[in-house]
Amino acid sequence: MSTNRTFTMIKPDAVENGHIGGILEKISSAGFKIVAMKYTQLSTRDAEAFYAVHSERPFFGELVEFMTRGPIVAAILEKDNAVEDFRALIGATNPAEAAEGTIRKLFATSIGENAVHGSDSDENAAIEGAFHFSGREIF
Ligand code: GDP
Questions:
Q1: Tens digits of per-residue pLDDT, 68-115?
Q2: Which residues sit in the known binding site for ATP?
Q3: What is residue 1's predicted lDDT score, i.e. its pLDDT?
Q4: N or C terminus: fewer CB in 10 A for the chain?
């Protein structure tokens, strides 16, 4: 996959709080093109696999429970420098530390329930995109 793509999820908290539209508007306004998107819900097995890198962390159980408790929006986004620019758009993991105007500052409530996911590298963007989408779902 090319390096101008990143992967995102609008997490269950943001969906529950009615922020799908607001977050997609921020993403579009920042110049990201949506090349794949679906409304879906992670199973426990999905969430454990997706977050396997965090399996030894004390918050892992809480993270899996949170990410499976309701639907999410998963998407692949395209833009020059997508991974880095999207991390800047979403802001710090903890919304209390996120910069003004970032998605997490605007829409997140806590370090755990932080509204959106954004891939942290080109390699993970490709892995995470392939986790959720088949080739014919990417445009
Ligand atoms: P990210 O790359 O900014 O999403 O942050 P990390 O990769 O460090 O963590 C992945 C996800 O785990 C975060 O987005 C949060 O949803 C969750 N998380 C991280 N730290 C904590 C924590 O201290 N407590 C809880 N409950 N969840 C956390």
A1: 999 999 999 999 999 999 999 999 999 999 999 999 999 999 999 999
A2: 11, 59, 87, 93, 104, 114
A3: 44
A4: C
> What pLDDT sits at residue 104?
98
Domains along the sequence of the chain with CATH: 5-137 (3.30.70.141)
Centroid of ligand 1 to alpha carbon of 54 (angstroms): 9
pTM, rounded to two decimals: 0.97
Q: Is 73 helix (H, G, I), strand (E, B) or coil?
A: strand
Q: Nearest Cα to 82, choosing from 115, 36, 44, 42? A: 36
Ligand 1 atom index nearest CA of 11 = 16
Do the strands 5-10 and 33-40 form a parallel or antiparallel pair, or are they unpaired? unpaired
CB count, 10 Å around CB of 83? 22
